[in-house]
Amino acid sequence: MSGESILFPYEEHEYTREGINMENIYNPNPGLPEFVGRTVLDTVGLVIPSIDVALRREMKLPDDVNALGVISSRTGAAGQICAVDEAVKNTNATLVSVELPRDTKGWGGHGNYIVMGGRDVSDVRQAVEIALELTYRNAGEVYINSAGHLEFAYSASAGEALNTAFSAPVGQAFGFMAGSPAAIGLVMADKALKSAGVTLIRYMTPDRGTSHSNEVIIAFTGDASAVKTAVLTAREVGLALLCAMGEYPEGPSTPYLS
Amino acid sequence: MSGESILFPYEEHEYTREGINMENIYNPNPGLPEFVGRTVLDTVGLVIPSIDVALRREMKLPDDVNALGVISSRTGAAGQICAVDEAVKNTNATLVSVELPRDTKGWGGHGNYIVMGGRDVSDVRQAVEIALELTYRNAGEVYINSAGHLEFAYSASAGEALNTAFSAPVGQAFGFMAGSPAAIGLVMADKALKSAGVTLIRYMTPDRGTSHSNEVIIAFTGDASAVKTAVLTAREVGLALLCAMGEYPEGPSTPYLS
Amino acid sequence: MSGESILFPYEEHEYTREGINMENIYNPNPGLPEFVGRTVLDTVGLVIPSIDVALRREMKLPDDVNALGVISSRTGAAGQICAVDEAVKNTNATLVSVELPRDTKGWGGHGNYIVMGGRDVSDVRQAVEIALELTYRNAGEVYINSAGHLEFAYSASAGEALNTAFSAPVGQAFGFMAGSPAAIGLVMADKALKSAGVTLIRYMTPDRGTSHSNEVIIAFTGDASAVKTAVLTAREVGLALLCAMGEYPEGPSTPYLS
């Protein structure tokens, strides 16, 4: 997953104009400069050019952060965190915070609320644009049916956001899987870890590390091909189990891991 | 917002009889003296004339509390707390506890569970009736669309319930706003705080002060007109952003802040 | 509630073949030996013959546990815990953990994630089969309408799972009730505790002991007939209140307590 091949030339278009993927990223322009765009999974991207001083204090922002870029979604976690991870790598923005509310619009998982910071608004605007674009792509690995949901993510090289959210070693390959109801997540995790020589870095359950979501989640690192194999194994097992509980799970965009 | 102008003469009718707002507050009378009424947002109002001794111990009730009045809803927080705030001011009931479950029937926010106490059942019954009536009115400032929701509240003079729930200074003006997904709440908060000279008293996010809801929430105090201005600014910004994510948000009753 | 009269002869059929209750427990066989079956309330039953070593460490499993049996559901708590309680009593499986995510598919309660352990997979498979069968039966005491939900459970003799989950005294009668929105749970609890000489063993609210669900929950023990009376009283009150808020609540199977 190289940054260059994924990112569209944001300098050349705005979300309010015709452009690539406009059918997926709809911007009716609310007349607010803060609005950057929206995409699938009820994801919105916003900027704040100069954050209010009382909020700055509560958020414990570093002195050199004036502008904020914010991504949040009703559904999804790792996909958006991976998107922000790439956005931070490829811009002057830095990561401020990652929080995972208990959401998913009635399903058993998380939404997300991710704050990035920068010296000025152009830094964070670019980061939000990248994060929106990649959120759309990464949403291809969210699978939802009437019984539950699955989420998968992979990065060839974890950066600041994945390190903060999951203690992923920076510069190493990163793999993620979540399954709901939680029991299917545990079987997926077991199969994934046995499939390849990967190192478990995070094990999460309803009472451990989640916002009481109905999921078992694992994150892992290791050799890039082993991490990819483990993610694909988890996906195969998860899809079989979720299909055994209900109809074939649809996703908001196109699966991209292979 | 003066108590007198809002409160209907509860002495003169019961919820089971014809009366003002009966179309909004439906009581099929389950044959239980505990049932007072219900209203929008799946809100129910109940009384317990003399609470069981084991529950009394668990709830750590003061000795002079025998009767309980209870309000709870699947959706909404500040509106119902403001309603109870007025109810406690205008009756002999006192506040026992305010809890905010993670609910909203599949949306990203809170419901509520609010307990009032009194010496006898007539005290708490009157308080529950007032709280139900005001819950209906306050629900006009709840806005829900397919992408997210907004909630606003304003009191010219905070009382016991707002003090307990949000550390609002008693006797001072109180303002509240919540936006979901959380990112839109942050932009609303920033705009509100900059719009007028108000003092931030509570900043809440998915991991801070909420039940892991997908919201940024702020509460603030200050001069009454400044607080009102800040609430209305947040509402304008929030509606613009929520409309940018989906259809115009409907509410269960009529907006009343202006 | 005696084990013998409830349990079907699992030795004689598999879920993939024709058999008793097959209309309720559907198994399209995903081609994975881990899949045992599914039943109402989006409940799945799975086994792991030999758990991965990294997961074993995270789960702090005892040395003599090699195989895991897992039950989890999007909706329900006490019914599935009671089901596992009987399953553990009647097999060589032991209880590993009980967790209650905030779920119920958009309603105000919990789902569940329950792990059992055993020396080998035949022990836990049998336990999962029993737990699935009893989950179907116990789901008859889950009541859901558009406003909220109720759940009831009763065991003549609590075992390991009820002891772990609710501190129920082993070998004693166990009663459970939950009501949502929370206020109706409090009135149900008050009526139940006053109806018979039972001892309160657990009092749970949105901020206490739950995963921020919109419920008041109590568990209690005592003489078997008193515990049964208290459960039935809570059910009568709860149904009256829930009907006062909306339509008559349907359940996924047939009420069985009487």
Short key terms for the protein model shown above:
five-stranded antiparallel sheet, 24% strand, homotrimer, alpha+beta, 258 residues, disordered N terminus
Overall mean confidence score, pLDDT of chain A = 88
Structure class of chain A: alpha+beta
What can be said about the biggest beta sheet of chain A? 5 strands, antiparallel
Beta-strand percent range of chain A: 15-25%
What is the overall number of helices of chain A?
A: 7
Order of helices and strands of chain A: HEEHEHEEHEEHEHEEH
- What level of helicity do the residues of chain A show? 25-40%
Write the layout of secondary structure elements.
The structure is a homotrimer of 258-residue chains.
Chain A: H1 3-6, E1 35-39, E2 43-48, H2 53-59, E3 67-73, H3 78-89, E4 94-99, E5 112-118, H4 121-138, E6 142-144, E7 149-155, H5 160-166, E8 173-180, H6 182-195, E9 198-204, E10 216-222, H7 224-245
Antiparallel strand pairs in A: 1-2, 2-3, 3-5, 4-5, 6-7, 7-8, 8-10, 9-10
In brief:
3 copies of one chain form a homotrimer. Chain A is of the alpha+beta class.
Give structural notes:
Three copies of one chain form a homotrimer. The relative contact order of chain A is 0.15. Chain A is 33% helix and 24% strand. Residues 1-28 of chain A have low confidence and may be disordered. Chain A is globular. By secondary structure, chain A is α+β, with helices and mostly antiparallel strands. The longest helix of chain A has 22 residues, at 224-245. Chain A has seven helices and ten strands. Chains in contact: A-B, A-C, B-C.
